[in-house]
Prior knowledge:
By secondary structure, the chain is α/β, with parallel strands linked by helices.
Amino acid sequence: MTRPRILVLGTGGTIAGAAGSATGGGYRAGGLALSAMLDAAAGLGLEAELVGEPIAQIGSQDMGWDQWSALHAACLAACGDPAISGIIITHGTDTAEETALLLDLTLPAGKPVVLVGAMRPADAVGSDGLRNLANGVAVASDPQGGGRGVMVVMGDAVFAAVDVRKAATAHIDAFRGFPRGPIARVTPSQITWFGPPHRADAPASYAWPQSLPRVAILTAGAGMDAKPVEALLGIGCKGIVLAGMGQGNAPGCVLDALAAAAKAGIAVVRSSRVDEGMVERNVEVDDDARGFVAARALGPAKARILLQVLLANGISDPAGVQAAFDNL
Ligand code: ASP
């Protein structure tokens, strides 16, 4: 039986991190080349052929347009290549949710695309990187792995891009899903899916843009004034995501300034600085009157990505933006 061929796109992160000591505290994300990781993986006895393609060697805090464009192009080519069964992206954990959602919105859903990372550098005692990679290989080569959109595999769990977020800074069980938890449990030898593929053969939801417009996240805090809103408009933001208190709240003066911005054509999305939960329309804030959009289940980081993609695709009116958040 031929082994599935999996394309591994390397970007760096802690999974490629080198501490130089098994027990030290500091390390450099992206210090190891993808080839070193694949050499280590070659000793695991995986039932797949891994083909490496380095894209970057950075901490994912530096992830941006250039790397995203290269990733998107490589994934799209692999989606059309009958020799490739699935795609793994090795990625830092800090912004995995952003890259995952961006690709989820802009790639067809046919083949599995899986982001894997690590919370401990490759040379640290108890490093989780190779296990997450082995789990990613299991997902990317599973015939049931396609049609589920982009996924993040961490800590023996599989999360859909729309749900996943990093919820802890350092410990090994750092990822959570909301509103859905994991969509599968995985080990290198077994996968248990909790439901059927829901996007089988679906085309990309949005076109890959020429560029991403400037959209900022504004975190609300007690006692703040409206000056940060003015500052964001002053630097040319086309959209603002409010990381609001509770269900997307902010002091009245801030909401007034955001409403004025919305009336002037700036897309304003209310999300929450709270770890988890829905932000619904017209609860404490009159979104209808103020021209706002409610982020529903999306936290600020992913709401920003979705808003950037929408604006880049010419969708900027509150009703159209709200429909996209509703239908995610
Ligand atoms: N700062 C690192 C990164 O996102 C953290 C990690 O990978 O866990 O690249």
